[in-house]
Amino acid sequence: MEYRRLGRTGLDVSRVSLGTGGPSRIGQRTHQDEAKSHRLIHRALELGVNLFDTAAAYSNSEAILGRALRDVSRDQYFLATKFTPTVAEGELEVITPEQMIDSCERSLQRLNVDAIDVFQFHGLVPENYRPAVERLYPTALRLQEQGKVRFLGVTEFFFNDPSHRMLLEALAQDIWDTVMVKYGILNLTAEDEVLPMARARDVGVFNMSAVRAKLSRPDQLEQLILKWKSAGLIDASALPDTDPLGFLVCGEVKSVVAAGYKFGAANEALSTVLIGTGDAAHLEENISTILGPPLPDDHMDRIRQIFGGVAESERD
Predict the structure, then answer these.
(1) Closest by CA position to 146, among listed 114, 109, 172, 189
(2) What is the pLDDT of residue 316?
């Protein structure tokens, strides 16, 4: 495993971290076998993963993590979790400080720890960022002073803000230790301002989605590329209609998904790439991919030339 500094936190975190959300939620939506989820978490530790990302909203992920890590020395891993600052993700109505405290206390109990390493405001958008920060950030600082959380972060609302307007405002405010961004082959816009700003301000960056969602679904990827060609967002002759990213599969790169992970981990402004899975073999494969040889420079250049001005959104 390779390790990178998580910005101003000073934590040395694994370049690959295990995420407990996504389609699998560490197996809760696939095999539904908690013992197998525990084996996945223990295998991640064996492979050098020392960062686990979860959220109160990820079904029973916090509790499963807490039970799996019960007998593991606390200095062997870091925990990042999240609370939803609004009544629902993307909504405008902000919860009360008391509700935020309750969420933190429940997370501590489920995770079976005395302190959360990174406590994140989950899924904010430009419209609710300011109200959430004004109402809840002072309480977050008090939780920090009490030793219940060590560092504070904010995460964007996946596809609803493809130009990262919320994160740009958050980074300009310079009150966060970490941010979580969607960045990958089909979502390069973070390279323009978000990643340079984060690096300049020494903010740790989680890449939440190197391959979700179209990159891992060949039929949907083809439809998306056709749509972008029709809209004039990419040149019609830049890629074939069938298997448009097939040129990336060669040499050490065994699949388009593998290319996506390699690309999504390459930028040095990124501290860690989240892998969401319920299967240990899948985790091992993705770690091997990310830590293996990088994409060829000409392929990196071609990706940026084609996709530099576009990004997946919820509407896609």
Answers:
(1) 114
(2) 62
Q: How far apart are CA 143 and CA 160, in angstroms?
A: 29
C-alpha to C-alpha distance for 227 and 236, rounded to whole angstroms: 10
Q: Which tokens sit at 37?
A: 């989820």
Alpha-carbon dihedral sign for residues 240, 243, 245, 249:
negative
Q: Are 112 and 69 in contact (CB under 8 A)?
A: yes
42 sits in which H/E element: helix 34-46
Strand segments (E) across the chain: 3-5, 12-14, 16-19, 51-53, 78-83, 116-124, 149-156, 178-181, 204-207, 272-276
- CA atoms of 86 and 109, how far apart (whole Å): 22
Report field, pTM of the whole predicted structure over 0.85 = yes
Q: State the DSSP string of 220-234.
A: HHHHHHHHHHHTTSS
Architecture of 3-217+256-302 per CATH?
A: Alpha-Beta Barrel (3.20)
**pLDDT for 92-148, tens place per residue?**
899 999 999 999 999 999 999 999 999 999 999 999 999 999 999 999 999 999 999
The mean pLDDT value of the chain amounts to: 95
Q: What separation, in Å, do the N-terminal and C-terminal C-alpha atoms of the chain show?
A: 35
User: Which of 193, 241, 245, 179 shows the shortest CA–CA distance to 215?
Assistant: 245
Of 298, 282, 289, 300, nearest in space to 252 by CA: 289
